[in-house]
Write a structure and sequence with these properties.
mainly alpha; Serine Threonine Protein Phosphatase 5, Tetratricopeptide repeat; 4 domains; 0% strand; nucleus; phosphoprotein; cytoplasm
Amino acid sequence: MLQFFSHACTCDQKQATCGQEAESFKEQGNAYYIKKDYSEAFNYYTKAIDMCPKNASYYGNRAATLMMLSRHREALEDSQQAVRLDDTFMKGHLREGKCHLSLGNAMAASRCFHRVLELEPDNSQAQQEVKNADSVLEYEKMAELGFEKHDFRMVVFCMDRALESASACHRFKVLKAECLAMLGRYPEAQSVASDILRMDATNGDALYVRGLCLYYEDCIDKAVQFFVQALRMAPDHEKARLACRNAKALKAKKEDGNKAFKDGNYDAAYELYSEALTIDPNNIKTNAKLFCNRGTVGSKLKKIDQAIEDCTKAVKLDETYIKAYLRRAQCYMDKEEYDEAVRDYEKVYQTEKTKEHKHLLKNAQLELKKSKRKDYYKVLGVDKNATEDEIKKAYRKRALMHHPDRHSSASAEVQKEEEKKFKEVGEAFTVLSDPKKKSRYDSGHDMEDDTGNMGDFDANNIFKAFFGGGGGQGYSFEANQCMYANSCRKQCLKKYNLKNKFTIQHISDSVE
């Protein structure tokens, strides 16, 4: 009996000694905690627990330290152990609730805070934390509805508010990152996902978001790698599976279209780009390229209006897409819609001030200026590359067609219109038949500034100089007469059964 009593005393002494040492470690831990040296505080609280593993307050203190070190899951385990050892340990319940809330489990957090209020109904901290938990639950519901409606800005807003209380919740962060990607805010989305992966390299959701950002930035090969890695970590990740399938299909279809275009098979390329555009409407950057590619094909197929429409869709998806502006501007130039072409080239030059873009803008501005003058080529009905002989033949035909004598029996209104056209034909020939004037006209100079008021010249003088003889006075035109001045008088009289109703001056062969 004496021996047993002696042994019991020895155990009590050891426990007392252990308790004292544990308390000493706890006090040292408290000192380091006050200094904000949380790593050392953690070490001493761990020593205290090792010495006395049944003390709830030691676990509570270490949980507080782990929370300061942002190790919330470990802190949750310590706080749960604390309340298991002592269900009346109010601080243990409070810290457990805060850990749950930080990790995004607002329902569990709310239960813990209500337990604190059972122990201490007037606890103001617990009352505030209940409100915080309720707010997180409300933001979760709002975010869920926003995501269903594709209101991604609303989701980002809700997650930002929720993360103020649930700062360690990866689920909230991933949802925010995914919505940032859907909004085209790729650097922000990448940053959020990367932060998660630094703490948890196996997080399938974060790997999926990284891949999604790359996919939407048209880095499809790298995106596929992240989707495959996400599926390794989470084989049932349906979003990663669908994105991986879309990425591979989009890449293949686009490459097929590019090959058809390079081979000159424009119809096939047009169809392939059209099919690619149906794969994923959310992939804005790739779809912008596809629209621009299809616009390029459309211009090759002479579908200029369709090409302009496709380029317009491309720049609506990506306002910084220079190539689409350039392609649309060229289409406008082809349609001689110079105002629109100048606007596009100005946009390009403001974005990228290169010599090439400056040249394109100046050329469009020149063509716009030229388009606002009389188009003498159109007046004569010849191409801008017409030869001297073609210009002479065109003048001969148009001058005879619109000569006032030919329309002497027409109404006053028709006579006035034909006289105007006759005059314009003379103006056109005056400029285009003179190499120097033609050169200045082609370069965009205003001919009226060089030659005075061209409206003052006499078109009949041009006619007389060209045809020779008595000029307009020697020509009497009637309806349905011969239009060709190089037909002889006898042939014309015979053809129209006219004897002395008009005379036609024979055109000198040397003029042709």
